[in-house]
Amino acid sequence: MPLQLAPTSDLSGLYQQLDSAYGHQAWWPAKERFEILVGAVLVQNTAWINVEPAIENLRQRNWLEAKSLLLAGEPALHEAIRSSGSFRVKTGRLLNLCRWFTGSGGFQRLDKQDTTALRESLLTVKGIGPETADAILLYAFKRPVFVVDTYTRRVLSRLGWLPGRASYEELRAVFELTLPADSDLFGQYHALFVEHAKRNCRTRPLCKDCLLNEQCEMALRKTHDRTD
């Protein structure tokens, strides 16, 4: 049985609220398609602000393509992407992705695969999990898949919409079954969750000035606690 969000949930309405408040996000920040693949690996378990210097280092070295990265050598890559954290692990994952990309025929052949087959193929790459695979599918290949990240789960949990501990695949399916299958919509929604988490729904939330505070269980509970 598919995951059921709380009866109070309204994913379409939430999108409209966030979109009206924050506007177009122009996410993912990349100049070339392959750069999105690189960024999707480097942003694992870190904030984008730590990835930006690493991307710029690779750009200055003309390494933002699969063949160049494979020829660069691991010590040089370690130094180039150090700011992204766990740079030794991420170097290995990045090289794994490059080998998969070149071995699969690059964008010319990968673009011809259907979304299910392409996702399954990405998930065979060591170090590429569902969130990273879906980010690549959505932003680099413009496939209508929803990326569930920490911010998505945090916002929905605090709103009181998530029943218990939903799995990644369950939550992804809820978005894809509820909303129109539109890669631009999914990309904007994902980016809006990120923006809202940065502004208000932080690890230590700023509920007082949050645009969702009148419908958020956490914010309402905090208000109730102050008035008791």
Strand content: under 5%
Would you tell me the overall average pLDDT?
95
Number of helices: 13
Shape: globular
Helix content: 55-70%
Rg measurement, Å: 19 Å
Biggest β-sheet strands, sense, barrel: none
Report how far apart the termini are. 40 Å
Order of helices and strands: HHHHHHHHHHHHH
Name a few traits of the molecule:
mainly alpha
Structure summarized in a few sentences:
This protein has 228 residues and is mostly helical. The protein has helices at residues 11-22, 33-42, 48-60, 66-72, 74-80, 87-103, 106-110, 115-122, 130-140, 150-159, 168-178, 183-199, 217-227.
Report on this structure.
It is a single chain. This protein has 228 residues and is mostly helical. 61% of the residues lie in helices and 0% in strands. It contains 13 helices and no strands. The chain has helices spanning 11-22, 33-42, 48-60, 66-72, 74-80, 87-103, 106-110, 115-122, 130-140, 150-159, 168-178, 183-199, 217-227.
Lay out the secondary structure.
Layout: H1 11-22, H2 33-42, H3 48-60, H4 66-72, H5 74-80, H6 87-103, H7 106-110, H8 115-122, H9 130-140, H10 150-159, H11 168-178, H12 183-199, H13 217-227
Helix pairs in contact: 1-12, 2-6, 2-9, 4-6, 5-6, 8-9, 10-12
